[in-house]
Amino acid sequence: MIMNIENYIIESIEVKKRMLEDRHLIEIIEMVSAKAAGILVNQGRILLCGNGGSAADAQHIAAELSGRFAFDREPLDAEALHVNTSYLTAVANDYSYDVVYSRLVKAKGRQGDMLIVISTSGNSLNLVHAINAAKEIGMVTVGMTGAGGGKIKNLVDFLINIPSDKTPRIQEAHIMAGHIFCQLVEEIIFKPAKD
Fold first, then answer.
1. H/E element holding 144?
2. Is 44 helix (H, G, I), strand (E, B) or coil?
3. Cβ neighbours of residue 163 closer than 8 Å, sequence gap 6 or more
């Protein structure tokens, strides 16, 4: 059992090492962070969604932005789209689970806002529909996935695809990337570089 634990930790470290060596991935995280900061400064909002553990990650990232992350500062407009269980269960029941996010994107999204979808496989149909709805509105779209990117790979404006095909390792790396994103957004908006 100890060997299994050690192997899981080594796997997690190896995924993060591959991320560290992937200059393109690092540049995408930087670009998405800068884009999000610009959106928020201009009174836009960040909407996030996912399923299961990815929904938890979406809620975690939204909370870090709307609450605080590394230091005390003004709140930022970020929301995870699954937190209203009455809405979620009504729409899933009356329409289909496939449209629970796209309907909220249509209701809450505005041109120039950002939608971040989180999925280890990149194949969730409700996220595909959410991206399509966001693109119709003129929102910036970001996907956080595993290595392949799945169906959303070619739909989003920015893809943060973690170099792994193992769900737990992808999720661990998603939250690390999410924390980096939150910290960069916070620093860009509230601690501008000194000349």
1. strand 140-145
2. coil
3. 15, 18, 19, 22, 25, 147
How many CA atoms does the CB half-sphere of 170 hold within 13 Å?
22
Residue 195's pLDDT is 47
Question: Residues 93-105: pLDDT tens digits?
Answer: 999 999 999 999 9
Q: Answer yes or no: are the C-beta atoms of 117 and 49 closer than 8 Å.
A: yes
Residue count of the chain, please give it: 195
Residues 31-57: what's their mean pLDDT?
Answer: 98
Residue 55 has pLDDT above 60, yes or no: yes
Q: How far apart are CA 51 and CA 40, in angstroms?
A: 25
Rounded to whole angstroms, the Cα distance separating 171 from 175 reads 6
Residue % of the chain over a pLDDT of 70: 98
Alpha carbon distance 1, 14 (integer Å): 20
